[in-house]
Design goal:
There is one protein chain. The protein is α/β, with parallel strands linked by helices. The chain is 25% helix and 28% strand. It has a seven-stranded mixed β-sheet with strand order 2-1-3-4-12-11-10. It has a three-stranded mixed β-sheet with strand order 5-6-9. A two-stranded antiparallel sheet has the order 7-8. The protein is globular.
């Protein structure tokens, strides 16, 4: 698929940054606020933001169940930071009423690295890439547990990371789903987004046009 149509969940979060990176890589990128926009997508990005707000807005705008269904049907989805939380089957330190879309057989710990003031940056070795990526962690989750079917793509390997973070899982893939704890859209490095576009191509190269 030379020009996939990739939607970005656009009800909350850092939407414009993802749209900019996707467009720079040749994808047709569009914000998703309605079911019709979701239905036109070959893949979906769920950006960083506030996970508790995101699931509530998805419910309010009648997007929650349609996205969940598309995930079950195999839609490629890439979640970053809050997006990772939205795709996780289980959450530690979530709010009592917090829901997730699910699909990734992982347990995530919300705000695992601490509050906004504990945000940090570091180099992370990422599976499939020759050179490390510069990872920006902002009130980020980490993966507490990953099922046997989950491929670990990256762990914290930066000596400057907060205490207790060394070795923590910060990027995963399972089938058509990818997620990172950090924000690959903020520093102009499109390599992880390219991996997601390759995932779309590899899963269904004969996807019919919409």
């Amino acid at each position: 698929m030379s020009n996939p149509r990739v939607g970005v969940f656009a009800l909350q979060g850092d939407v414009r940054e993802h749209l900019r990176v996707l467009e720079s890589l040749g994808a047709t990128a569009t914000g998703v606020r309605r079911v019709a926009e979701l239905d036109a997508c070959d893949g979906l990005v769920i950006p960083g933001g506030e996970s508790t707000t995101m699931f509530k807005l998805a419910r309010t705008f009648d997007l929650f169940e349609p996205i969940r269904q598309r995930i079950k049907e195999g839609l490629p989805v890439f979640g970053t930071c809050a997006g990772m939380i939205m795709l996780a089957d289980r959450i530690e330190d979530g709010t009592p009423d917090q829901e997730t879309l699910g699909g990734l057989h992982i347990t995530v710990r919300r705000n695992a690295f601490g509050r906004q003031v504990d945000s940090f940056e570091g180099e992370v070795t990422f599976a499939g890439l020759d050179d490390p990526v510069h990872a920006v962690f902002i009130r980020a989750p980490w993966v507490e547990e990953a099922g046997p079917e989950v491929e670990v793509l990256a762990r914290i390997d930066d000596a400057g990371a907060p205490g207790g973070a060394a070795g923590r899982i910060v990027a995963v893939r399972q089938g058509s789903l990818m997620a990172t704890s950090f924000h690959p859209e903020v520093d102009g490095d499109g390599r992880i987004h390219r991996l997601f576009l390759d995932l779309i191509d590899g899963l269904d190269p004969a996807r019919p046009p919409h």
